[in-house]
Every structure is written in structure tokens, then in C-alpha cells.
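Issue 218. Parser rejects a valid record. Input:
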Amino acid sequence: MKAQYVGALEDRLPGRDFHTVRPPAIIGTDPADGNQSADYFNGFRIYFNSPMDVKSLDPNISILPEATKVYTYYSEFEKSFYINYAFKPSTDYTITLGPDMADPYGNKIGATTTIAFTTRPAPGLLAGLRLEDRWILHEFARTVAAVHGSLR
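Output the parser choked on:
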């Protein structure tokens, strides 16, 4: 049985409309599917059209490459689920949202949603050394493990 969005209680109660909770649905994500320059330090957020049962969310989310040290937060006000995870720069990610995500009444989303995005490259690191009145600047790639130098 599906609930209707708006309906009259009875003909003898004109003007007394009521609203039911919408069937659950994903209305957006951040980053969005297809994003080619997603920030790698902002985590991932799912936006829903109605309140959700938080216990049904985690088991229905998979992140590839696999995520570790993941922290989550559900916002009742925004109806959003935030996954706090530091993605790696310049990496392709696929997040799968399972069909068993449900609202507090047991209504399930019912369809699998896949979001694919690529994180942007990390900026280079800029190092500066001041010698008397002159600056010597050098930009290092993010992959440099150590910088060695000497001062005489």
C-alpha cells in the first residue's frame, strides 16, 4: 500500500488536507556523480527528500577504493548523511548506495544508486628560503618525502 502525498480526510471535513511522509529518495550528493575535480578533503554527503532511519544507512554504503577511518553524521534538519573521510587526491572513487536504505517507517529506497567522481590533484608545496635580502622559492611535488639542505 502506498501513501498519497495529499488527500482530504473526508468529504464532510472540507479544507482539512493532510500530508504524509514522502517515499524515501536520494535527491542529491556532494560531490555529484560525474564530478571530475571534487575536493578530496570535504568528505561525502547524501541528501534525502524525507527523514531516514540512520541504522539503515551505513550497511548500504560502499566506497571504492575502500575507505578506512570513516566517521558519519546524520543531520535531521538537512535530511543528509555525511561521511567524513579524507579522500586521496587525483583518485577515481565509486560510491554505491544500496536499495535497503529506509525511512523510520520501514519504506525502502528500493534502487541502487552509483556515484562516480574523481578528486582534484593536490597543489604543490611552496618552500621559501631567505638569504639576506633575496628569497629563493621552489615548488615541490606532493610526493616529495623529504627535503634536505644545509646552511653554512
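Fixed in the parser; the record now loads. The two ends are 82 Å apart (CA to CA).
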